[in-house]
Amino acid sequence: MFRRREPVPFAFVAEADRFRSNVAPPPRERASAGQIAGRWLLGLTIVAGLVGSLVLGMPALSSPAATPAQQSQASQGH
């Protein structure tokens, strides 16, 4: 009446955390001077763009109370 369940065909996946390989991966290649300079240049460009957008956007974010009130000529009766 009660059957014993068959093992899952992919039981090796559950045992993968216990598996350790004795083959070491190859060492990573060191980046050349040109690659390092390119990464720095890209990073500086991104940071400069963010800072520039913040500097140019600050006047739009400032409150209008900081500027002196201007009246149109129509409100002065001209």
Structure in words:
The chain is an all-alpha fold and 78 residues long. Helices cover 42% and strands 0% of the residues. It has helices at residues 11-14, 33-61. The longest helix is centred in the middle third of the chain and has 29 residues, at 33-61. The protein is elongated, with a radius of gyration of 33 Å. The mean pLDDT is 77.
Largest sheet: none
| Cα-to-Cα separation, first versus last residue | 103 Å
Provide the structure class: mainly alpha
Strand-residue proportion: under 5%
Summarize the topology.
Elements: H1 11-14, H2 33-61
Key words describing this protein structure:
single chain; 2 helices; 78 residues; mainly alpha
Quick summary:
By secondary structure, the chain is an all-alpha fold.
